[in-house]
Design a protein that fits this description.
The protein is an alpha/beta fold. It is 40% helix and 12% strand. It contains 16 helices and twelve strands. Helix 5 packs across helix 6. It is globular and about 75 Å long. Bound molecules: pyridoxal-5'-phosphate. Pyridoxal-5'-phosphate is lined by residues 74-76, 100-101, 103-104, 146, 172, 174-175, 196, 198, 209. Residues 74-76, 100-101, 103-104, 146, 172, 174-175, 196, 198, 209 line the site of pyridoxal-5'-phosphate (PLP).
Length: 405
């Protein structure tokens, strides 16, 4: 299995040959009881808008210490609903990290708002509260912190800022199911919190998401937004056999099906096992990569917190030239290791460049981004696979640092 042997094959042949050994950066864990739960629901009277939806909402809310949750067809739909519930109007500005998946900023755009991109903190991936403070204007209405990779954001600083400037706080916790900030689970710490149940996230419903909250007044706008904007009293009155409904303001069909919620309920029972396995893998990576002085290991949670380890993101040190990350990426992919880059800064994407929502002074992120690479992390990885990733990575890092010979 040498590099030279592999490079003698055509790319297509290589893919075919390597496929069984390819380790992706993330993937779901579906077990027999998950399948049974979905099958059972498929045989039940309700495929959608049935009892499993409320059960899943209650179970997730209880798990994260929130009053309630509203399930949505995706995490992105959930963020869209949250932005609509805030009552944002065109021209309103929302602070979002430059480093996140595009959906964080896209959701702001869906309601006509303007995302304003915040730089990273000095030695980490999460948004920098001081930089956020400098970017506040009279039009700023909200801030959407992202617990990047699952590392809890310094919420105290974010909340102080929000209080001072009368901003709403909606957490993008797509990476942070199971994360804890200062002894309290993420999910009930801000106005609203969004979770995603995409297959690479901690628990999955195929596609799916949820907004959790503690103030009961969010429930009605979120539920009606998910259901075409139909006024919610009527949805509830359905049981009383009344036909009339109204749509006071536009909504979408963002419902999550009952069989997806059945899967979510089944997955939720395993969440602690999944989280623990992610932590074990992180400990192994830290051990097998920790001896290197030329890479920075991902930061841990601060005191009283729990990192939920959605991603394991390495940063290449100054020993590496700026182009090294992409060389490393290609070599690792060729060797069956599914590395990934999370993420290209959102303001660099064409759709943001076109609208001139370009770089708003995210110099730390600009310096860090070309040095970031994510390596495989998901509960189903075996110790042998983790060892293989670490061994191949160690060799490839040495090779890339030496440069072309
Ligand atoms: C996955 C993700 C989303 C979107 O969630 P979907 O369920 O895929 O729509 C939003 N923000 C971040 C940071 C994510 O990782």
């Amino acid at each position: 299995m040498t590099a030279s042997r592999r490079s003698s094959r055509s790319p297509k042949e290589t893919r075919k040959k390597e496929a069984p050994f390819f380790i992706p950066y993330g993937r779901h864990t579906i077990e027999e009881d998950d399948i049974r739960a979905v099958a059972e629901t498929l045989r039940s009277p309700f495929l959608t808008t049935g009892p499993r939806v409320g059960d899943f909402e209650k179970a997730v809310a209880a798990r994260v210490g929130a009053l309630a949750g509203v399930a949505m067809s995706s995490g992105t739909a959930a963020l869209h609903a949250a932005m609509a519930a805030l009552g944002l109007v065109p021209g309103d500005e929302v602070l979002v990290p430059g480093l996140s998946f595009a959906a964080t900023a896209n959701a702001v755009r869906y309601v006509g708002g303007t995302p304003v991109f915040v730089d990273c903190e000095k030695d980490g991936f999460n948004l920098c509260p001081e930089d956020a403070a400098q970017k506040i204007t009279p039009r700023t209405k909200a801030i959407v912190p992202v617990h990047f990779a699952g590392q809890p954001v310094q919420l105290d600083a974010v909340h102080r800022l929000a209080h001072k400037h009368n901003l709403r706080v909606v957490e993008d916790a797509a990476h942070a199911f199971g994360a804890v900030y200062r002894g309290r689970p993420v999910g009930a710490l801000s106005d609203m919190t969004m979770f995603s149940f995409h297959p690479v996230k901690h628990i999955t419903t195929g596609e799916g998401g949820m907004i959790t909250f503690t103030d009961p007044s969010w429930a009605t706008p979120l539920r009606s937004f998910r259901h075409h904007g139909i006024n919610i009293d009527v949805i509830q009155r359905d049981a009383q056999k009344k036909w009339e409904y109204d749509i006071p303001s536009l909504g979408f069909n963002y419902r999550l099906t009952d069989f997806q919620c059945a899967l979510g309920l089944s997955q939720l029972k395993k969440a602690d096992r999944f989280l623990k396995r992610r932590e074990e893998i992180v400990d192994l990576y830290d051990r097998w990569l920790g001896g290197r002085r030329d890479v920075l290991l991902p930061p841990r949670a601060s005191t009283g917190g729990r990192h939920s380890w959605h991603l394991y993101v390495l940063r290449l040190g100054d020993e590496f030239t700026p182009g090294s990350r992409d060389v490393l990426f290609q070599k690792l992919r060729d060797r069956g290791i599914g590395v990934q880059v999370h993420y290209k800064p959102i303001y660099r994407l064409t759709v943001y460049q076109k609208e001139q929502m370009g770089d708003r002074g995210c110099s730390r992120l600009e310096a860090m981004f070309p040095r970031m690479i994510s390596i495989p992390l998901y509960p189903a990885l075996t110790n042998a696979q983790v060892k293989r990733v670490a061994a191949v990575l160690n060799n490839t890092l040495d090779e890339v640092k030496r440069g072309p010979s």
